[in-house]
């Protein structure tokens, strides 16, 4: 019999990350999950921003699954801040909702492609040039 951690990982079907070993959400594909980053509004706490993003989406057509806020923040060298979130289940439906909410709030979205942070306005920034923080 393995350690308690090994047993838990087997039961959960994946590795339990240690605080100092977290990978940046979206840098490693996870089957059935999509990661996206939304721009900080500069006014509200993260939880309020996350809720407002979804509340601003209008009618959400996703039929199953959900959206989860993540504690990862990415700071650009110009001071812009982005927060991570992920969605699962009805990927298309949740993607549509997040995009609609961001558009309604005038916020940019971004994603990770390889070693780049790609922002919807066309910028592509090496992740190594960004400050990454987990809270």
How would you characterize the overall build of this protein?
The structure is a single chain. By secondary structure, the protein is α+β, with helices and mostly antiparallel strands. The protein has a single domain, classed as 2-Layer Sandwich (Alpha-Beta Plaits). 25% of the residues lie in helices and 32% in strands. It has a seven-stranded antiparallel sheet with strand order 6-5-4-1-3-2-7, with helices on one face. A hairpin with a 4-residue loop joins strand 5 and strand 6. Helix 2 crosses helix 3 (91-105). The longest helix is centred in the last third of the chain and has 15 residues, at 91-105. It is globular. It starts with a helix and ends with a strand. The mean pLDDT is 91.
Oligomer: single chain
The whole-number mean of residue pLDDT values reads 91
- What percent of the residues sit in helical stretches (DSSP H or I)? 25-40%
Task: Note poorly predicted spans.
Answer: none
> How many domains make up the 3D coordinates?
1
User: What is the structural class?
Assistant: alpha+beta
Radius of gyration: 16 Å
CATH architecture: 2-Layer Sandwich
The CATH class, by name, is Alpha Beta
Tally of alpha and pi helices: 3
The general outline is globular
Distance between the termini: 34 Å
CATH topology group = Alpha-Beta Plaits
The fraction of residues assigned to DSSP E strands is 25-35%
| Main pleated sheet | 7 strands, antiparallel
Element-level helix/strand string? HEHEEHEEEE
Please give the order of strands in the largest beta sheet. Answer: 6-5-4-1-3-2-7
Q: How many distinct beta strands?
A: 7
